[in-house]
Write a structure and sequence with these properties.
The structure holds two protein chains of two kinds. By secondary structure, chain A is α/β, with parallel strands linked by helices. Chain A has eight helices and twelve strands. In chain A, α6 runs parallel beside α7. In chain A, 45% of the residues are buried. Chain B has one domain (5-480). Chain B has helices at 8-11, 38-47, 52-66, 107-116, 122-127, 145-150, 158-164, 166-172, 183-191, 432-440, 445-461, 466-479; strands spanning 29-31, 90-92, 129-135, 138-142, 154-157, 196-200, 209-215, 226-231, 236-244, 251-254, 257-262, 267-275, 286-297, 303-310, 315-318, 321-324, 330-339, 344-353, 359-368, 373-382, 390-399, 405-414, 420-429. In chain B, strands 5, 6, 8, 10, 11, 13, 15, 16, 18, 20 and 22 form an eleven-stranded mixed sheet that branches. A ten-stranded mixed sheet of chain B has the order 4-3-7-9-12-14-17-19-21-23. The chains are: A alpha/beta, B alpha/beta. Chain A binds chain B through residues 69, 71-79, 91-96, 99-100, 104-105, 107, 110-116, 120-122, 124-125, 128-129, 132, 164-165, 181, 185, and chain B through 1-7, 431-434, 436-445, 447, 451-452, 454-459.
């Protein structure tokens, strides 16, 4: 399993582990209902600092539910189980507190907020996190310098800053915007919910290089995805297969390849619906 | 058991901070006893040493008003108003006959303006704003007269214009809103006590934004101010109106009239930020705001723009309108109206296309929170001769919480087949999705709601002069506090 970690430097990670730090994320036997229906039926998952995990599974297996419930989206009923973020009870925190503590969700369908420009939201988000950490807030110039560098990386045009949040954006632009926000906010744990879906190959590579640029011993990434395609570019340390609200199989990246070859039926999921 | 701080329950507590301008200035006022009859009109007219034509006009209005009935077609509900229980004249008592400069103005008055943030002193000069402040019924201070006079612009209290420029007043007063126009305008015509007067001569671009700050102070006085703005041929003027009133348990009546006249190639931009006391969370108190505002694009290629941000008042009844008489005239109406708690607003505009190739644009943004009720009522009328007339109307409502309402009453009458009339309307809630998106980025619920609401209002805010836009945004945030919780 440990031979599939080409990006993370093992020595530094071991150092972090040696300090006896709690995992970045520790989910225990999580049961969650949506609209009275049990959707997650006992999820357990441990993500250590610096790791990249991929959670795969057919539609309706509970992938997005897991991402949403961890970030505090309304409408989910936590029946039992727990989730700790750096040892802290995640469910005791409001969504914005979770975000400020360093938990980021890359949305599958980023919503439009007409009239609110991208720069405004992103600056408010960054400064909210900085306040939380006792750092001084960035002024407009400092912010622009920071965000411009990241925009270049994601090949996002300058004019983008003045546009409304996701307003009139194509699917690909929305996903790139999510990655840009992630790069600016530099979360400790990024949950990327089907960030690869609907992207052409160039956009996929761009998104992947954005994600890879964030990889660091102190940061963890959970990729929620349907296909193994993204994993060619962002190589995970661990792969989990979700079916019917449970993790039915875990392994290294070869699991994703095998899954691609044999289909979700192999792990007891439904057939992949494109 | 899941934690849902972003739910609609949250959405309900963002609206409740106390009204910030709810203080009363304690000064001796010269107030006539409540009631309305000919003797009161004669008293007002005498106090102001008015010429005969004005007294006659007032008396005609009073006679007409007695025959009229209060209109009840609006989507508004309130107990009957006792017009005989209102005092129709209240003036602060002066230490001298009248202030000749700011130094002579009662310091308490100035302190009041200070609390309101009216830029009367040096700040005003820096900000480039001339203020004609109306305190109850008498204008107490007018700044920048000299600079304006150098440009030939007349900007003074209405009562002063009556003395100094009676021929202009006689010519234009009531020429847009006649004394017989409607119940409240007619009442105003009979009893108005002061207001602002602006005349911009031909070809002059007014060198600064003009601003009036209205404030109702005395208990149980109605405020009936009257504003008249004339932009002569090829001139331009931008006028800002800001309002607030002290906090009281009883309701106060405000029935103002604004008349705008734009001659050939002239342009008037009229911006209002209305923050009269809206009443408390139970709907007690607050201003009843029954206002008639109308602009007459009398000349060719003239243009009148109304921009309003309405956050205050218990009741708002207001339809700033444009008569597009000159060929090629343009009328615009940009509006944000917010109702929270038990506030009610029935507001909109009328665009009457009379001349050829006249154009009008209506952008209305209504925000309802708490138990607020918000109605847009608009009329686009294309007269038979208005060849090539065009109108575009966009009318959007945003709902916050479950107990508020939004209503839209668009009327379109077209009597010319060449006209183009477009109407777009939408009603939406602040979506949980938008809210969660912001929260997930670490933004608080309150900031997120303000952000989303400001974004919704952006098309209107960008029509406001810069400083006003900032003010409007803050005001909106305050008036929606507690709407989300």
């Amino acid at each position: 399993m440990s031979d599939a970690r080409p990006v993370t430097a093992p020595i530094e990670r071991n150092a972090a582990l040696a300090a006896d730090a709690p995992p970045v994320l520790e989910v225990r036997d999580l049961h969650v209902k949506v609209g009275g229906q049990l959707v997650l039926r006992g999820i357990s998952l441990v993500v250590q600092a610096g790791e990249v995990h991929a959670i795969m599974g057919p539609n309706g297996s509970g992938k997005s539910t897991l991402a949403h419930v961890l970030t505090g989206r309304p409408g989910y009923e936590i029946v039992s189980g727990s989730a700790l973020f750096e040892g802290q009870d995640l469910f005791a925190l409001a969504p914005e507190q979770r975000a400020r503590a360093g938990l980021f969700l890359g949305f599958q369908y980023p919503v439009e907020i007409p009239g609110v420009n991208n720069a405004y939201l992103l600056k408010a988000a960054l400064n909210a996190a900085r306040r939380e950490r006792g750092l001084t807030e960035l002024d407009a110039f400092e912010f622009l310098a920071l965000v411009r560098a990241k925009m270049q990386l994601m090949r996002i045009d300058e004019s983008f800053l003045g546009r409304g949040v996701n307003e009139g954006f194509s699917g690909g632009e929305r996903k790139r915007n999510e990655i840009l926000q992630m790069l600016v906010l530099e979360p400790k744990l990024a949950l990327l919910d089907e960030t690869d879906s609907g992207l052409d190959i160039d956009a996929l590579k761009l998104v992947a290089s954005g994600v890879n640029s964030l990889r660091a011993p102190s940061r963890s990434i959970v990729l929620v995805t349907h296909y193994q395609r993204l994993l060619d570019y962002v190589v995970p340390d661990h792969v989990h297969v979700l079916a019917h609200g449970r993790i039915v199989r875990s392994g290294d990246r070869t699991l994703a390849l095998e899954l691609e070859r044999r289909g979700y039926d192999w792990v007891g999921g439904e057939a992949v619906v494109a | 058991m899941s934690k849902n701080p972003a739910s609609v329950n949250d959405l309900n507590s963002l609206v409740g901070r106390a009204y910030r301008h709810g203080f009363v200035t304690d000064i001796d006022a010269d107030t006539v006893p409540p009631g309305l009859d000919e003797s009161v009109i004669r008293l007002i007219s005498r106090k102001k040493s008015e010429p005969q034509f004005l007294l006659d006009w007032r008396l005609r209005a009073l006679a007409h008003w007695r025959e009229m009935r209060e209109p009840h077609w609006a989507q508004l509900h309130y107990p009957p108003i006792d017009y005989q229980a209102i005092s129709y004249y209240s003036a602060p008592k002066q230490r001298t006959d009248g202030p000749k400069s700011l130094a002579e103005v009662d310091p308490k008055l100035l302190a009041t303006y200070d609390k309101l943030g009216v830029p009367l002193h040096e700040r005003a000069r820096l900000a480039g704003v001339a203020v004609d402040a109306v305190f109850d019924s008498v204008s107490v201070a007018t700044t920048f007269k000299e600079r304006l006079a150098a440009a030939g612009v007349i900007f003074c209290p209405f009562s002063e214009a009556v003395q100094q420029h009676p021929q202009l007043v006689e010519r234009y007063l009531g020429s847009v809103v006649p004394y017989s126009d409607n119940f409240y305008a007619t009442l105003n015509s009979a009893v108005f006590t002061d207001g602002s007067f602006v005349y911009v001569p031909p070809g002059v671009r007014c060198p600064m934004e003009l601003s009036t700050y209205f404030r109702i102070n005395a208990i149980k006085t109605g405020q009936f101010e009257r504003t008249l703005i004339i932009a002569d041929e090829g001139s331009y003027v931008s006028y800002l109106e800001g309002c607030s009133a002290p906090q009281r348990d009883e309701n106060q009546l405000h029935a103002a009239v604004v008349e705008l006249v734009a001659l050939d190639d002239a342009q008037i931009k009229y911006s209002t930020v209305q923050n009269w006391y809206p009443g408390d969370e139970q709907g007690r108190g607050g201003i009843y705001n029954f206002v008639t505002k109308r602009g007459d694009c009398r000349g060719r290629n003239s243009r009148i723009s109304w921009t309003q941000v309405e956050t205050g008042s218990a009741i708002t009844w207001k339809y700033p309108s444009c008569l597009l008489r000159g060929d090629g005239a343009i009328g615009e109406f940009y509006s944000v109206a917010t109702t929270n708690n038990y506030q009610q607003a029935d507001t909109g505009t009328k665009m009457i296309h009379i001349g050829t190739n006249t154009r009008s644009t209506i952008i209305s943004k209504g925000i309802s929170a708490g138990h607020g009720q918000n109605a847009y009522r608009g009329l686009v009328k294309i007269m038979p001769n208005a060849v090539g007339a065009r109108n575009f109307t966009q009318c959007d409502s945003l709902l916050i919480g479950k107990h508020c309402g939004a209503h839209t009453f668009p009327y379109i009458e077209t009597r010319n087949p060449t006209a183009t009339v477009e109407h777009e309307a939408s009603t939406s809630r602040i979506s949980e999705e938008q809210l969660f998106y912001c929260l997930q980025r670490g933004v608080s619920t309150e900031d997120a709601v303000n952000m989303i609401v400001s974004g919704f209002c952006r098309p209107v805010f960008k029509e406001l002069p810069m400083e006003f836009a900032v003010e409007a945004q803050k005001l909106l945030a305050v008036s929606l506090e507690g709407a989300v919780a």
